[in-house]
Design a protein that fits this description.
Elements lengths: L1 H25 L5 H6 L13 H29 L37
Helix pairs in contact: 1-3
Length: about 120
């Protein structure tokens, strides 16, 4: 479930980031209205003479807020993952030691090597 949620938030984050980039590139700067005042530009647009600034700036603000929230969500999800084992043997369970039966003692005294 955690990986699915992380992937979903990451996808939303990337899409919102691309949306913010697109909206910022579509907006015109403050100097663009100067040319329209002297007749060299067209002040009427799809959103009206001043409607585009309000619509685009509000949409950019909403997308920027969503971008920051998804950024915080990604940092939270990434920091709450279980820690990986630091050693190869950390997660290995060992069986309890069993008592082995001692072998019969071997007599290595010099008396054994004397021929009969």
């Amino acid at each position: 479930m955690g990986d699915y949620l992380f992937s979903l938030v990451l996808t939303v984050h990337v899409l919102v980031g691309l949306g913010v980039i697109g909206l910022v590139l579509v907006q015109h700067g403050k100097g663009a209205d100067m040319g329209a005042a002297f007749g060299s530009g067209s002040s009427g647009s799809l959103f009206g003479s001043s409607g585009s600034a309000n619509f685009l700036s509000r949409t950019t603000a909403v997308l920027a807020t969503v971008f920051f929230l998804t950024s915080l969500g990604l940092s939270f999800l990434a920091s709450n993952k279980p820690a990986a084992p630091s050693s190869v043997m950390e997660g290995v369970q060992t069986a309890p030691a069993t008592e082995s039966v001692p072998a019969a003692p071997v007599d290595t005294s010099p008396a054994q090597s004397i021929p009969k």
